[in-house]
Design brief:
The protein is built from 5 helices and 10 strands. A hairpin with a 5-residue loop joins β9 and β10. It has a single domain, classed as Dihydrofolate Reductase, subunit A (3-Layer(aba) Sandwich). The two termini are 17 Å apart. By secondary structure, the chain is of the alpha/beta class. It binds NADP nicotinamide-adenine-dinucleotide phosphate. NADP nicotinamide-adenine-dinucleotide phosphate binds next to β1, β2, β3, α2 and α4.
Length: 172
């Protein structure tokens, strides 16, 4: 019997115009969305680019933090370091938890083809940004959930899943 594979989930909040960041910060603050991020990821594995780590500024507690960087001598206390996205996923797979890829734009662009699911919070306005979430094909992912969230700034939480047939094709 084969061991179940850790699912790879892209977790992102984006504005209507797909902006996700500006000046290495998230250009909105919605405490309920932050709390949702924490509940969803607690106990699991997080993979992020080095710039996203810099913008957070500390390892997120209760989760394995894996930071991708090309800087071979960079070590961050409390984080596992990876020299590539594939190395980060290999580390994640040894931990047998869900793997959440949490950004930023550079890492989302590289990981889209590997994602089983996308958890997407949509903020209902255009926001000035310098980093954007890549467009993804409706042929590759199916929207399986869509929930309007009443919050200090309301947003919509959507789940997209890669159809099983495509998952199997990807693995073979
Ligand atoms: N709204 C959201 O949900 C959300 C989530 C996360 C982040 N963000 C925002 O996104 C922005 C940051 O995104 P970003 O695209 O600028 O940067 P990023 O994806 O967070 O990090 C890019 C860095 O990751 C490393 N890297 C990327 N690909 C690599 C590879 N294949 N091999 C080795 N290292 C690799 C490099 O680090 P080195 O330079 O150290 O080599 C690169 O400079 C910020 O504004 C942040 O606030 C938004």
């Amino acid at each position: 019997m084969s061991t179940p594979r850790s699912p790879i989930i892209l977790l992102v909040a984006m504005a209507e115009n797909r902006a996700i960041g500006k000046d290495n910060k998230i250009p909105w603050h919605i405490p309920e969305e932050v709390a949702h991020f924490k509940r969803t990821t607690m106990g699991h594995t997080l993979i992020m680019g080095r710039k996203t780590y810099d913008s957070i500024g500390r390892p997120l507690p209760g989760r394995t933090n894996i930071v991708i960087t090309s800087q071979a001598d960079l070590a961050i206390p409390g984080c596992r370091m990876a020299a590539s996205l594939h190395e980060a996923i290999e580390i994640g797979r040894t931990l047998a938890k869900k793997i959440f890829i949490i950004g930023g734009g550079d890492i989302f662009r590289q990981s889209m083809v590997l994602a089983d699911s996308i958890y997407l919070s949509v903020i209902h306005r255009n926001v000035e940004g310098d980093v954007f979430f890549p467009d993804f094909s409706e042929r590759e992912f199916v929207k399986t959930s869509c929930q309007y969230i009443e919050a200090s700034e309301p947003y919509t939480f959507e789940i997209y899943e890669r159809p099983d047939a495509l998952k199997i094709a990807k693995e073979s």
